[in-house]
Amino acid sequence: MANKTALATAPTTAPSGTPLIDMRNISIAFGGIRAVDDASIDLFPGEVVALLGHNGAGKSTLIKILSGAYKRDGGQIFVNGEEALIANPRDAKKYGIETIYQTLALADNVDAAANLFLGRELMTGWGTLDDVAMEAEARKVMGRLNPRFQRFKEPVIKLSGGQRQSVAIARAILFNARILIMDEPTAALGPQETAQVGELVKQLKSDGIGIFLISHDIHDVFELADRVCVMKNGQVVGTARTTDVTQDEVLGMIILGKCPPGAIPGPGALKIAA
Amino acid sequence: MTDTTSNQPVGSTAADKARASELSAVGRFLKATELDTRMLGMVGALLVIWVGIHILSGGLFLTPRNLWNLSVQTSSVAIMATGMVLVIVMRNIDLSVGSVEGVIGMIMGVAQAEFLIRVIGFQLGNPWLWIIALAAGVVLGLLIGAFQGFIIAYMEVPAFIVTLGGLLVWRGMAWLITSGRTVAPLDTTFQLMGGGPRGSIGATASWIVGVVACVAVAFMLLNGRSQRKRFHFPLRPVWAETLLGVVACAAILGAVWIANSYPWPIGIVRQYAQQNGITVPEGGLFIAHGIAIPVLMAVAVGIIMTFITKRTRFGRYVFAIGGNPEAAELAGINTRWVTMKVFMIMGVLAAISAAISSARLNASTNALGTLDELLVIAAAVIGGTSLAGGAGTVMGAMLGALLMQSLQSGMVLLGIDSPLQSIVVGAVLVIAVWLDTVYRKRV
User: Distance (Å, rounded) from C-alpha B159 to C-alpha B149?
Assistant: First the structure.
């Protein structure tokens, strides 16, 4: 949890020990546009790091490199201190990296259980799909997230926004993820469901899972995150503990790229003429 | 948390019961049996067409002879339609199946009637003739499918274009093999795949097949029930399960009974009697056809393809990719390889259909399967396969094939000119898809 020694205004460094995830000098370009430019970011066990920035700042792109959806042009990714080779989503999952995408990435035409186990189906001894066992597991995990959910037989397109969200979250936590990426997890949710997701984040944190949280909602971020990392034009403006900076300072980072004294500046920080 | 300590099944909460009581009698029936309304609609449409043509033709349609012929005529298109379901579910299309059928029919014909006999020196009637010819056809189908699938999946050329090219290429190849010459006759064993009196399994074997099928239906219903019971899932009411079982068995045994009511023609009976030294009694000898071999092949293909779509990982991926390709990719599914495999399956099925069609003709012609791609696509679409991807059933496509074939042979019986037949088939296709669109919006 939050490091309580961080009382001084000087930037506190990240928790000591080996980071779960250490992305170093990541770059990717689409056509001529450098969507992510020399970005470095790390994540420790039981920590929530929020990624902030305007639309098109490169948050989602950076995170999609980690989840294997995009292939980086340069840079290295370390998982638990060892260099990880992540070329596709399957590789990422092997390292225990699970992602809840903003679009949810659900196959709309199949039911909740099929979505939960998509790509990792439970099989019977005969090598056939074990639908009954998958439904049983689905009922278990959904019971934890959304106890009132009963529509296991229907394709997920018929579910409400909140229900679809719980399916996407259930899929990410079902396989004992060590690193969870949540891209705008509450964008489609009402206040009650948003609070539920907040509870879930806290619970996962206490289990020692590291979480990258992408959000536009700065209140959410200050409530849930231990550190914030602000991006602008594909570059990291700065990283700070949420206890060391104010919301206004973070807004300044997002809008102006101005790094406050409480934050560790990145390559994207506004250069102040000395 | 769900309360699992109560004895009630998980689904039957008070809210569910309240909702169920609001349903009409029909609604309750459908909910209890878990039957698909669109499938029931198809069966209904089929029955209307059958009865309608029967009346219009003055009682010619619903006869054992006509229904038996209808079953044989349907099998070739029905087999390809099962594969087309997978292709269309993945948001692709295959326009080349008719031409692939043509070129493979040609290769199989040349192999058994010319190449193996003249070049390798096999004797006529050698059992290896039909085995090698059929195997060569199936392998060729697999290769053609793999080739087209590779271009579509890995070189990212749209399936519409690749298979439109294939439509021309494979038809041209079929012509080139013999410069347009028809190859006939085919091996006598190979011919059995085309049906006919000898290409049917007879009355006794048909009853055995029917009874085995009924036992299998009962076993599946019971097994599904015990599986759901084990995990305390909601169960169908016993009366609904029983009704489903009884209806399915009645349909199976009814079909066998019809197939067994169609006797061999007098000429063939006489020939058969002479060969076996039987004296034909006064009033003729009744020898039933029984189920035709091509129909058995189609049923087997239908069962295997249903199994693949519902019970295997591959089938699950096909549907997931059709529903949301990006999600499937992000879930770690190798979408390209799945796409290629779907086209390989389509190629193999086209080869099986080629065997049936050429065996039925007892000849390989370069025109074999012309325009079949349209019948196959129409069958799949009428059978509920959505062109937007992600939805469709093998069973529906086979019923769709039967419906198309019923219309066509019905119009022949009614003596409708072939241009008018085309107009009706085309209109039916458009109307069926329109009805489907309306249905999907309402449900």
Answer: 8
User: Which B-chain residues 182-221 have CB contacts (< 8 A) with chain A?
Assistant: none
User: Using CB atoms and an 8 Å cut-off, which of residues 209-248 of chain A contact chain B?
Assistant: none
Q: What is the mean pLDDT of residues B86-95?
A: 96
The more confidently predicted of residues A268 and B308 is B308
Cβ B316–A109 below 8 Å, yes or no? no
Is residue A11 included in any domain, yes or no?
Answer: no
Q: How far apart are CA B100 and CA B170, in angstroms?
A: 6
Residue B23 DSSP symbol: S
CA distance B321 to chain A (A): 7
Q: Are A71 and A202 within one domain?
A: yes
Count: domains in chain B? 1
State the smallest CA–CA distance between residue B11 and chain A in angstroms.
Answer: 7
The 10s digit of each residue's pLDDT in A218-258 is 888 898 899 999 999 999 999 999 999 998 999 989 888 88
Same domain, A149 and A191: no
Q: For testing the chain A interface, which of B10, B17, B226, B324 should be mutated: the one with the most A CBs within 10 Å?
A: B324
Contact A150 B13 (CB under 8 A): yes
Task: Determine how β-strand A82-83 pairs with β-strand A48-52.
Answer: unpaired
Is B274 within the bounds of a domain? Answer: no
Does residue B20 belong to the interface with chain A, where contact is any CB pair within 8 Å? Answer: no
Task: Please check whether residue B176 touches A, CB under 8 A.
Answer: no
Most confident residue range from B120-134, B333-347, B370-384: B333-347
- Sorted by sequence, the CB contacts under 8 Å of residue A254 that are 6+ apart come out as A52, A53, A54, A57, A230, A232, A237
Residue B22 inside a domain? The answer is no
Question: Can you give the residue range of the structural domain that contains A154?
Answer: 108-175
Q: Is A147 close to B322, i.e. CB distance below 8 A?
A: no
Instruction: Say which range, A4-13, B113-122, B351-360, B382-391, has the weakest mean pLDDT.
Output: A4-13
B371: left (phi over 0), alpha (psi -120 to 50) or beta: left
Cα separation, A116 vs A167, whole angstroms:
7
